[in-house]
Amino acid sequence: MRVPQGHTVAIALVTSVALEAAPCISQAQQPSGQPYPARPIRLVASTTPASQPDMIARTIAQKMSESWGRPVVMDNRPGAGGTLAAGMVAKATPDGHTILYALPNFVISTALQPSLPYEALKDFACITQIGFSTNVLVVTPSLGVKSVKELIALAKTQPGKIVFASSATGSASHLSGARFNLLAGIKVVHVAFKGGPDATIEVLAGRAHYHVGTMGVVLPFIKEGKLVPLALTTPQRTAVLPDVPALAETLPEFKRPETSHALLAPAGTPRAIVSQLNKEVTRIIELPDVKERLQAISFVTTPTTSDDCASTLRTQMETLSKVASDAGLRPR
pLDDT tens digits for 233-250? Predict the structure, then answer.
């Protein structure tokens, strides 16, 4: 049996004489009978190079390549709300050599678009959840609020006057804010911008009042006192901003993030290959240097079984479909 470079495989032969068992890393077999992987793996992601998700995906790809002795090549396919990347993987040969690094837009597109070139829950085999980014609900200091309850109270006394800035309509930032507005029972003015940094600038300038932004973008302004952090969209607090509460402390419905990052394969990929990928990615995520790198950008890792991954995606799609419908972003 061919053994990938960098792995040590001990084979225990069952005979009449009991042999001492050594640690073993099993290899899945492809339909052809060859051990997996048999050739380079393509990791497709709907993001541009040098973005935060791209960095996470490349970290996993590099470690996987080092472990298995096969190239794991990044294929960046941004555009069309992630459907270009997902559609390509859905049609790929289901042998584990083409996999999708699914970003939040995978779930969002399903919630917003009535017609897609694939069926999200049928055309993919879930490998594992990767984790989710830490987003922060921030307000301009001029608004004069110091907590989520104060923001909600102010918005209720001034319906239609408080301005919520987000990145593009249908983005994770927009839907997080829309979900907050619905659960808080407030009516505000929503203004969408090209990206999160643009929305942040509007709040800094006081032309908008609040925004749900990624930690990496808003943290420098929080430290300078130019933005007031009210809450995190993560289920728990973070060591980066230990005094800032989780939004779930005020609105319990936020105990689960609306979106996350996951690894998917085309439907029909052999279960043994899915299992091998699951174990490898989970191992990589738990490596000390990888954990340190992800913690530095406040990315929360949540590796799961493939079944739990599928369940999480289903729940996220149901949650965001309701938010999109209630917010008037799609027909009921």
Answer: 988 899 899 999 999 999
